[in-house]
Amino acid sequence: MKRILFLLLLLAPFAGISQNNRLWKSYYSYTNIVDLSQSANKVFAAGENAVFFKNLSTAEIKTITSVDGLKTETVTAIHHSTAFNKTLVGNDNGLLLVINSDNSVASRIDIVQEATVQSNRKRINHIYEHEGKAYISCDFGIAVFNIATLEFGDTFYLGPNGAEVPVRQATVHNGYIYAACGDNAGIRRGLVASPNLNDYNQWEMYNFGSWFFITTHNNTLIGGDSNTIFKFSGPNIFSVVHSFSFATPLLDLRSVNGSLMATVINNVRVYNEQLQLQASINIIPGETSPTNFSCATILNDQLFIGTQNKGVFATFINNLSIISNITPNGPLRSNIFSLEKSANALWAVFGGYSSFYEPNEAEYGISKLTAEGWTSIPYEDIEEKNEGNQVASLSDIVVNPNNENEVYIGSFHNGLVKITGDQVEEVFTPLNTNSNGNEGLQSLFTSQFPNYRSVRVNGMTYDRQGNLWMLNTRIPKPLKVLRTNGSWVSYSFEGIIANTFEGEYGKMVIDKNGTKWIPSLNDGLIAFNEGQNDKFIVMKNDSNLPSTYVRCVAIDNRNQLWIGTQKGLRVLRGVDRFLTENELTTNAIIILEDGLAQELMFEQFITDIKVDGANNKWIGTATAGAFLVSPDGQQTLFHFTKLNSPLPSNNINDIEIDPVTGEVFFATDRGMVSYQGTSTKAEENLNNVYVFPNPVRPGFEGDVNISGLIDKANIKITDIEGNLVFETTSEGGTVLWNTTAFGRYKVASGVYMIFIASEDGSETKVKKVMIVR
Questions:
Q1: DSSP label of 429
Q2: What is the C-alpha R_g of the chain?
Q3: What are phi and psi of 543, to 5 degrees?
Q4: Where is the signal peptide (predicted)?
Q5: Which of 164, 345, 376, 504 is 20 to 30 A off residue 149, Cα-Cα?
Q6: 3 state SS of 377
Q7: CATH architecture of 1-172
Q8: Domain ranges, ordered by start, for the chain
Q9: Distances in Å between the alpha carbon of 379 and those of 48, 364, 459?
């Protein structure tokens, strides 16, 4: 008999940073609700990558995310056990997470493949509790989980000769456990009391066909196929309760607290114990755009409706006109493709393209985080400004450095979106940018599909004169500039790269000399400066690049160019070399690891590089998480992964840094979190120096932050008698002191003086900090 092994992994604290989880924040989306559950006074909602609950007694809404230890893959099911006061969270890869009553994550249970079960067949579809056991419906069969001991028991394979068949939902009725099976495996049942249900011969066919739902309602067996609800009175004996149209398949069917709820994308129907229709809702009052329902549950006469795009709504069975949204504040989606930090906001878009620049044509809005929380611009507002035409694959963001209220969003399929004061003002396309001699945006052209149109805008940035530069890919003149006077100018890459009709480009940067450094998919790194007689330099393998696929570039505080490629990292020692040389050579960073010379980031697919206030580099990768390396790259200060930190994924889409606070934002394909970094942008003077925490109280294990510094300030710390205990020079706006005397021992309780002076001694500042042991 085939068996599956279940491995229980008790969640140890995150190695190296568990005591510093207070330094992390989460920014998940809760708009796409995949499942709901309830207790006596709480409703639980599962998003794709995090969960939340609302306490109806206190009105408290609490989120549980990776920062709390909930390290999900993609959530597919949730069930709250009232008897054990635990919440089970199932994932698409067979991962089961258990949340305690205090919201801590008790354990992670991974279904480990022994021989035949493939990873794509471990999806958890539904969790049903009966007499202390959770019957977990998976794509291979049913797994039985003991909620009290957090251990798995039997595994049921229900197909012919014990074959794997997908079980969508299970229930217990009159001593039998029923399983709704897909792939035409029917509804099957076996006696709960049978000691050998893991023998497929113990299961009998109850009804033929493909089934998605099975539930027990008022001691009646209720089933559902793709679009119809059935009432069963015996094997192959049933009657129809309700049929939906073929265009609106049944998404959810459950019985809770005497009510049967059926959900399709545009309708939720609630039946009483006698299967009489009690309520039906198909629109949400006040919502101006379509609401796509996903599931529903009921608690204390309140109906909670999960949606695919707007979170959870709460209403009353007897008064559907009273309705509210109880979703926690967050971005529109967890999978954030690109970020942009301005002085007072963080912008996020969710469209994007594949690693080979294939637009996903996704139609999503735009989100913005400020001190007041998240707000969003709906996709419908963008489309309306384009005369109802599609504006998909929003992939890049740039904020006007001279006017924070002016923001441009690049669509990698339909042009350029201009936002003014959080309102969509205009969508730029070839139709409105190529008049009066302007050379504006263009669509790619393919002879194979001559009617296909795709206007791909990417890599936007401003120059010092306030002109907006961007790449318009797969055309002969891909480098565009929108000048401050509203005119457009184009620059040709013909003769510079092999095939302009296949040219794809990443996010460029502009250095202090006005040189544009442009990453490309197949043509290495392209450097261009129109002020140098339209000079081009193309850097490929002969420039010591490890790959001609350059994904990202960054200029550090010493005017060195850091280059991230599909196969590693390179550094150009000085951007000024472009002005005097015609060929440029990059260098690998060689470090010593276990006494052996190694290349930093060897063979890593680097997705982003950001430079912090101390000239450290945050490096994002496609598979290995995020690194923080020292200014010269010789030290790896941090390496955050999904295993050792709250990062929800090792695939980093983008990184942004708040230069004032030092907060570092990591956008991944499974959600966004931030780490409270310590490197901030240098100030222009010492007027705003501050020290925290102050006082340092007993039990504090962190560092004292001295912030608001100018660059290269000298900092000396002495005890009250003038004995020097610490000295350093600032790089950026923050210095850390670990409250030791030059690292040898913890200093004693007392008042310590902090003397700060600029490099030339023209500015000084004195601060105090109290240490209490």
A1: -
A2: 30
A3: -95, 15
A4: 1-17
A5: 164
A6: strand
A7: 7 Propeller (2.130)
A8: 1-172, 690-771
A9: 20, 5, 21
